Amino acid sequence: MASVLYASRNGTYDEFVEQYDASSADREKLLVSALTHPEPVHRVAIATRLLDDGADIVEAERRHGAVLLSLLPALRHDSALEGPLVQRLVDGGADVNALERRGDRPINYVIRMSLPDEERGPFYRALFGSGRLDLAVPADPRQPDGPTLIEHLLANPETQKLPVLRDHLVRWAADHQSSQG
């Protein structure tokens, strides 16, 4: 019989529920594990169950790392399923500016998703709509005097091909500039 941790990361929702005991489970650890599940339908169902049962997003990040950096690098995404989950994570305090060891942030993973730009809308809305997204940080953390993330993204030819993203970037830049002046 598989462990609940294994089931959260690799099993179906039903297999997870068979192993899961809400009264004794480390919901935060299981949440981070569930967010790495390769299948969006199970990822969302298991993570939603854990959140419904009281998994604390901020505590999960404190103990186990950034939840968005667990979810967004997945190879397969379904924005209709995952959009509400990402919004719930962000609303619950997930770090929209988390920096992983290679220098990527949640926005970098959304940009690299193998979804059409318009299908990434729920992810963009969650990140940009949080009011906490900071694109004025260095694009490369190893080069603090280099271009900011917003400068890099606006100048990047790849983002020219992503009109929904570009609209969010331009709006963010305008809002940030007006708040600075």
Automatic annotation (TrEMBL):
It comes from the Bacteria. This is Ankyrin repeat domain-containing protein.
